[in-house]
Write a structure and sequence with these properties.
There is one protein chain. The chain has 127 residues and is mainly beta. The protein contains no helices and eleven strands. Strand 4 and strand 5 form a beta hairpin.
């Protein structure tokens, strides 16, 4: 079974920082890109950030630009999301996703580009 596992979520106060990690679990897989999405209660999945595995090219949602930083360790096949200056609007379940096929039918900001998903980690920011 191929999957990814998130870690690092928690309860913090507004203005605090958190660092999320995403690592593979089970059978190894090739990676074309990885991304973070989030889902707040009653809302749709929202794109947060993505990183291309080969060249490290990054893309962010406007709502997190300047506050969040996505990075990867290509050797460990692990991805990170450094989240600074968190606000209550960042409260959500954060999901890690991996594109192991590289078909590129959709933009990397589109969740349909990703075929491997984690179970999610809760991030709660109190005001």
């Amino acid at each position: 079974q191929v999957e990814v596992v998130e870690s690092g979520g928690g309860l913090v106060q507004a203005g605090d920082s958190l660092r999320l990690s995403c690592a593979p679990s089970g059978r190894a897989f090739g990676t074309y890109a990885m991304g973070w999405f989030r889902q707040a209660p009653g809302k749709e999945h929202e794109f947060v950030a993505t990183i291309k595995w080969r060249d490290g090219r990054k893309d962010y949602a406007e709502s997190v630009k300047g506050r969040f930083t996505i990075s990867r360790d290509a050797i460990k096949n692990t991805m990170y999301l450094q989240m600074n200056n968190l606000t209550p609007e960042d409260t959500a379940v954060y999901y890690c996703a991996a594109d192991s096929k590289g078909v590129r039918l959709y933009a990397s900001t589109d969740k349909r580009s990703y075929d491997i998903w984690g179970q999610g980690t809760q991030v709660t920011v109190s005001s």
